Amino acid sequence: MTQEELAEFYDAHIEKIYRFFFYKVANRVIAEDLTSQTFLQFVKALKKQEFENTKAYLYGIAKFVLLDYLRQKYKRVEIPLDDEIDYSVEMGVQHLDVFTLLEKFLPQLPKKQQEILTLRFIEKNSVSETAKRIGRDVNYVSTTQKRAFHSLRKLLDCTDASTNITEEQTDETET
After folding, report:
1. I need a labelling partner for 59 at 20 to 30 A (CA). Which of 50, 75, 92, 163 fits?
2. 164: Cβ contacts below 8 Å, ≥ 6 apart
């Protein structure tokens, strides 16, 4: 593709690519940046080889640029479960630790989840130690632990405020 053809191609598609990004990200500056990234990658690819359908290739690059942007924007930080973590839950003004929660809600969880949480947080075993003790792999322990936390969150959300742990805890501290 010659420079004149490239300039015509650019003029013909810049507005459409920009609108594509603006529609997706709803931010003018970001849409402009993503548009320029798309055309830079397109020109780099053209230097290496010619394409039969350059328009389709350009839009393919635009989609990948958008996906890469979204991956970076919504990147989740994974916290290793073996590290020291403050396993406490803030409820209202009071601060509850995981042991208070486990004491109240552990019996309501499935047996496998009870076993994992007991080994992990009451007996303070690591994920790998817990896996060895129950004869399963580390992924099983991590998944079951995540499911148990999810179940605990559901139980906490469904707990009536009048029977909440915070009130019980305040009664204990007053006596």
Report:
1. 75
2. 91
